[in-house]
Amino acid sequence: MKAEAATLSKLSPIGMLARMGYGARALVYLTVGSLALLTATGFGGETTNSRGAVRTLAEQPFGYILLVVLVLGLVGYVTWRATQALLDTDNHGTSVKGLGVRMGLLISAAIHSALALFTAKLLLSDSGSDGGQPTWLSSEWGLWCLAGVGVGMAVAGVAHMVKGWRAGYQKFMQLPPSQVVWMQPLCRFGLVARGLVLVLMGAILVRSALVAHSSEVKGIADALNTLRDSAYGAWLLGVVATGLIAFGCYSLLEMIFRRINY
What we know:
Layout: H1 2-9, H2 13-40, H3 50-58, H4 63-87, H5 96-125, H6 140-165, H7 180-210, H8 220-228, H9 233-257
Helix pairs in contact: 2-3, 2-4, 2-9, 3-5, 4-5, 6-7, 7-8, 7-9, 8-9
């Protein structure tokens, strides 16, 4: 513990922002997963996306403080993701695969920028308005762009599942040997579950754009609802919801044990 504290004290500003960011991501996924699990078990709750999770946090005791912490953490996460992508802190390189990973990091930064902005607006104005869909999405080329985003989501989902199955995260994390026996299965389960949700989101988005010709952007809630409405839906939703909670815990472990190469 003393060595760990010493390591944390030597973190660069970017390192501190990165760890704040992983903590913010954990808070969002723990909320989304917990609400979905309550739905699956019949104890209330609802399937929701990251913005719904932010609204739920705002409604809790000390909700204002939670949103302030979340905004700061999301800004940290965006900064870290952009740094990873642009400065290649994890040495992904300039191969096709490496550039693909770095582009994914930039997209992650953009997505979390939007979530940070939404949270800040909710914090400042107490308004939960998402705004309408951009008009260009209704055009033919806009629908093809959405389909491309869906394919990208599905590819990212498969990458998450492979990373979880092969425990590829280990080269970026230094888990304490005495705790690996429970930490490793938790990390693998969380990554596979998030990967499955991303694949479902991608498939739903592609079908929506190319088959239904709908410009409505689909998210985590739609993927969870698809599971809920399928055969054995409550069980499937329960397993995936538990996995999203595990991914939130994985994010907490990243906050503590992730190697920050900057």
